[in-house]
Design brief:
Elements lengths: L1 E4 L4 H12 L7 E4 L7 H6 L7 E3 L5 E3 L1 H11 L11 H25 L9 H19 L11 H16 L5 H4 L1 H9 L4 H4 L7
Parallel strand pairs: 1-2
Antiparallel strand pairs: 1-3, 3-4
Helix pairs in contact: 1-3, 1-6, 4-5, 4-6, 5-8
Length: 200
């Protein structure tokens, strides 16, 4: 299998974390690319030309992080990324984290054409949305990854790290101390430590 990724995308990082957690690192060729670079294999693997994109052993292209994780769960059922116990709660937590990631990524993109976006009413609304998602996760954090490295835990860790990476001037930890305590407990986990976002 081939997984197209880059070093800053939180969506791609979710897939990279899952590959490690599933014990599939020896079966997946992780390729760090420039999504804008026109790599023909990457372009042919998904119509959106966004990372992550996975090409299965059968040559089928799968895009979007949640879809990639579904496939990884299919080929390696244990440990499950979508465990059946407390599934609704886990999906609610996953949705909150993924929604926060979507909004933060949109802020970064919009800043390129509107440098004052953070301070205008729409930008401020976007940041309130991220805080609201983190409030929801603070009230009911995912299980620790030592107990269950499920979609909710992976997405939440990714969202928190992305917030700290892209918006280091904001006091995320002070606003959501219980949630950051949860993230601290995941420290030292190889799947997280080896995939931390960084500029290439």
């Amino acid at each position: 299998m081939i997984l197209f990724t880059n070093l800053t995308s939180p969506f791609a990082r979710i897939a990279r974390i899952a590959v490690v957690e599933k014990g599939l690192a020896d079966r997946v060729d992780v390729r760090v690319i420039d999504p804008w670079g026109g790599d023909p294999d990457f372009v042919g693997s998904n119509v959106h030309e966004r990372v992550p994109a996975l090409i299965t052993d059968e040559g089928i292209g799968i895009s979007e992080s949640a879809m990639v994780l579904q496939w990884l769960d299919h080929i390696a059922p244990e440990p499950p990324l979508f465990p059946k116990d407390n599934l609704a709660l886990m999906l609610r937590q996953s949705g909150a984290a993924l929604g926060a990631i979507d909004v933060m990524a949109a802020i970064i993109i919009t800043r390129k054409s509107a440098p004052d976006f953070d301070t205008n009413p729409i930008g401020q609304k976007r940041f309130r949305t991220v805080h609201a998602a983190f409030d929801r996760l603070e009230a009911a954090p995912p299980r620790d990854m030592s107990d269950s490295a499920d979609m909710a835990a992976i997405a939440t860790a990714t969202a928190l790290d992305y917030a700290a990476f892209r918006f280091p001037d904001r006091d995320w930890q002070g606003a959501h101390p219980r949630l950051w305590d949860w993230r601290t407990r995941q420290a030292g986990r190889p799947s997280l430590d080896t995939t931390m976002p960084r500029e290439s």
